[in-house]
Design brief:
Elements (H helix, E strand, L loop, with lengths): L11 H10 L8 H15 L3 E7 L3 E8 L8 E3 L15 E3 L12 H4 L5 E8 L5 E9 L8 H42 L5 H11 L10 H6 L2 E4 L2 E4 L1 H10 L3 H6 L6 H14 L2
Antiparallel strand pairs: 1-2, 1-6, 2-3, 4-5, 5-6, 7-8
Length: 273
């Protein structure tokens, strides 16, 4: 017999949309997820593991340990045992892959490169399987206790919660940025994209060159004080209306460069108007 790829999940379109909504694929967030694999590897005693997300086309590697994979590597869904995990509500545990009716025909198993497999679906709060968290043993078939499996399952649930939190935070940040852009543009017809960027910098307490604030000073949102560009009373009023106080702004920060990407995307959209 030959290897039989996993069937497509019945909710594949919505599942893939939920995965892409996280914004994780293609970003450098390995450092956020490596720790989960390291802990799971220590708990299980297995030799390797991977955390992958599945978009509409590919199995996308996010983090791996002991596999020598590129963090951004993409592969065909049909080539992976992990694709079967997307169909499961519970962990897919196979201590001896050579005894499994389907998996024993996978090329990696037939070549003797992998003997044991534990796969955990990574589900979001809506129940969609965004991807898989898998542990592998290469040298021999190795069993682990039910208590350890339950512990790893809780660890994966924590990982899924982190993804949910990041996704919600990203959406909240995007909404606030979009709303603040609308309010800023409506405040004066002469404002351009760079005026918005400069105003945000000033609201955040950053120093900008006087030449960059010509429009803001001309319209009365900023003024010069001791050679520095600062908000005027009207500027503070607009800041309050836009709800971009420094304290709030800091609370909305996202790990890595994602916040900057959100702002850039919003400004690109603004430039099309």
């Amino acid at each position: 017999m030959e290897w039989v790829p996993a069937p497509t999940p019945i909710n594949e379109n919505r599942r893939a949309q939920a995965t892409e909504k996280t914004g994780i694929i293609g970003t450098d967030q390995v450092y956020l997820f490596d720790i989960y694999l390291e802990i799971a590897k220590d708990i299980s005693g297995y030799e390797g593991g991977s955390f992958t997300l599945y978009d509409s086309e590919y199995q996308c590697s996010i983090s791996s340990i002991g596999l020598g994979k590129d963090p951004h590597e993409k592969g065909n869904k049909s080539d992976s045992i992990c694709s079967y995990v997307l169909l499961e509500k519970n962990p897919l545990i196979v201590f001896d892959l050579n005894q499994h009716d389907i998996f024993k025909y996978h090329p990696v198993v037939k070549s003797g490169m992998c003997h044991s497999y534990c796969g955990f679906p990574v589900r979001n709060k809506d129940g969609y399987a965004l991807g898989t968290f898998c542990l592998l043993n290469f040298t021999e078939a190795k069993e682990i206790s039910a208590d350890k499996i339950n512990l790893i399952e809780k660890l994966v649930s924590r990982l899924a919660l982190q993804i949910d939190t990041q996704t919600e935070q990203k959406e909240l940040t995007s909404q606030k940025i979009s709303k603040s852009i609308d309010i800023f543009l409506e405040s004066h017809s002469e404002f351009q994209i760079n005026d918005y960027k400069n105003f945000i910098d000033i609201c955040s307490g950053l120093s900008i060159p006087k030449d960059n604030a010509v429009n803001l000073i001309k319209i009365g949102l900023c003024e010069l004080k001791n050679g520095n560009v600062v908000l005027s009373s009207n500027g503070y009023k607009l800041q309050e209306k836009m709800n971009i106080f420094t304290k709030v702004h800091n609370q909305l920060k996202i790990e890595g460069t994602e916040a900057n990407t959100l702002i850039d995307n919003a400004l690109d959209k603004l430039g099309e108007l």
